[in-house]
Amino acid sequence: MTVREVYNEKNKGFTLIELLVVIGILAILLAITLIAINPARQFGQANDTKRRSDITQVLNAVGQYTASNGGILPTEITALTAGAAATAVNNTNFPNLCGQLVPNYVPALPMDPSLPNSQAGISTCTGTWGDTGYSIARDANNRITVTAPSAYSGPIQVTR
Predict the structure, then answer these.
(1) Which of 53, 73, 129, 140 could form a disulfide with 82 if both were Cys (CB 3.0 to 4.6 A apart)?
(2) CB-count exposure of residue 50 (10 Å: 0-12, 13-18, 19+)
(3) pLDDT, tens digit, 9 for 90 and up, residues 117-153
(4) pTM of the predicted model, to two decimals?
């Protein structure tokens, strides 16, 4: 056996350079994958989908209330100045809207997903309930607009 054959048999492994090249390639592939997936964008789009669903749910509940009451809007909405928006914050702007809609037309007032404890929504209208994060407005023609102002891709509005 020659010296070269003995040397090759003892050193059957990867060199430091080979290991560094493989680690570098893996790091580049991981970076490309993270950029393609972009978890922040995915969560933002998921929250925007929930916001669209929530504001549509509120508009549907207002529509059902109006249909059940002979075309009369909830008193909290008719009290709004045409063109002025109000936000349901700490039960001050809409003290009766929750009571008018929950539980007959909607099981709970939905809350913006960026707010803490937003999964549960506002199911009880007693005491002081929290900020929904959504605003509601009425125009001169009694069209209702519900807005989710803190959306990932900009404000989301639905009007009926």
Answers:
(1) 140
(2) middle
(3) 666 666 666 655 556 778 888 888 888 888 887 778 8
(4) 0.72
